[in-house]
Amino acid sequence: MNQSILFPDIQSWDEALQAVVFPAQQSGALIQCVVPLTELSRLSGRVVEDSQQALDTFAELRFDLEESAEALIEDEAFNQYGQIEVVS
């Protein structure tokens, strides 16, 4: 793991985005990472229907999601809003 990218143990549900949002920090810059509900359902192999299920599923998959986010950050794969969308 690249130690220049840190992931604090913080996550929240964004109703407007229908996604779990979590921060990453790289060289002092705060980067917003987003995992859509559909991606959580796909990765977990089950239907994720609400915010609590999304947060629980995120917690289960956290390590893999952080690895994916790290690779996307290193590739500078930001979306039009400056976020990292963790989708495959």
H/E topology pattern: EEEEHHE
The biggest sheet, with number of strands, parallel, antiparallel or mixed sense and barrel status, is: 5 strands, mixed
Mean pLDDT metric: 95
The CATH homologous superfamily name equals Shew3726-like
Radius of gyration: 12 Å
Kindly provide the name of the CATH class: Alpha Beta
Residues in helices, as a percent range = 25-40%
Number of strands: 5
- Proportion of residues in β-strands: 25-35%
What is the CATH architecture annotation?
A: 2-Layer Sandwich
CATH fold field value: Double Stranded RNA Binding Domain
Q: Please work out how many helical segments DSSP would assign.
A: 2
Uncertain segments: none
Shape descriptor reads: globular
User: Helices and strands: which structural class?
Assistant: alpha+beta
Q: Quickly count the domains.
A: 1
Report the span from N to C terminus. 20 Å
Topology diagram in text:
Layout: E1 5-6, E2 12-14, E3 19-26, E4 29-36, H1 37-44, H2 51-74, E5 84-85
Parallel strand pairs: 4-5
Antiparallel strand pairs: 1-3, 2-3, 3-4
Helix pairs in contact: 1-2
